[in-house]
Amino acid sequence: MIPRRPETVTRRRVGAPVLARLLAGAALVALSAPFTVTAPVTAAPAIRCTTPSQQLLPEVPWTHRRLAPQRVWPLTRGDGVLVAVVDTGVDGAVPQLAGRVRRGVDVLTRGAFADDDCYGHGTFVAGIIAAQPAPGTGMVGLAPGARILPVRQAYGPTDGTTSGLARAIRAAVDGGASVINVSASSFFPSDELRQAVEYAAEQDVLVVAAVANEAQQGNPTAYPAAYPEVLAVGAIGPDGRRSEFSEVGSYLDLVAPGVDVVSLSRGGIGHLVDSGTSYATPFVAATAALVRSYHPNLTAAQVKRRLERTADHPGGKLPDPQVGWGVVNPYQAVTAILAEEHTRLAAPAGQPPIPPVAPPGGGPDHRSSAIEFSVTAAVLAGLVALLAYLIPLGTRRDWRSVGDSGDAPARDGRAG
Q: Going from the N-terminus, what domains does the chain have, and what CATH number goes with each?
């Protein structure tokens, strides 16, 4: 059995001292996994490094069976896209990430890099995005062609601040990322954090952020996920339902697998399993990387809208406060033709074209664009109505083909 990350063994509730700080408006940031914040710190804390795993998962994880990224890999694997992981750092020496991780930036320590990770949270997140295929395991990143820019904004699960998170987002933009994964949350709005998100949007960078895991502890609004420019992500389980811990609200955009997720351990060759919106978020960030690689002319706002429009929509009014626009769909996100983008998106030079055939599965894809279906139905209905009108009229007027008697068909104002 693949070991779980230690913090998911017991889900702790927010204690009275922490609640007092929250009510006082303390600028706390917690990693969006099923545990809660404690007091912020002003210096590097004495974080105990997590124990590396040496155990590989041989089979394909349920998350990949659900999202089926292999369908889109013949078109794009995310090549040419730099994804920033704003987190606890990323262990660039892990075999399945070797050569894919830049030195990065540590916003907590001036001049330091972020390509190591004592706690392991950032490495787990990065593996979901860009882990390389390896012998003996079915675990691979959703966008294995992408590269990772680690930006450290915390050393462990509870020491982040909104100011550090804001600096990290700006550092990710300045570092050249076109997609930023933020698997951390603050429960209070901040001008500094909002301005950092606006800076990313102005530079055409898409921020993808977790909605946090406090649905059963009051469901407080999570930032930066709640800012309108951000693609906010919640979690579902293997049954397709919203995870009980995943927060809800009008700002929720998409959901992705976030229960029993398998990814990489720091400091070893093995894997771990964990749950949280922290781990749903990189599935969406990786899908954004696939889209930005295949459709490089789309803006960040268009990529956000494309992921929403092409999701596996729930029944009822959209967006749904429980699951947003639905479950992210990597294949549809890359291949769908959206009328609102005003033009058919051709494949970039050197890329295979979007296939005009139905995807694997033995039948048409029932999740095709609703707009395309509506337009086709309207055209067919118009043709049927026209024929219903013209055929009886032509019969009454004894229409004949030109050449039968040397004369053209009879016409008048109604038939013309």
A: 6-341 (3.40.50.200), 369-416 (no CATH)
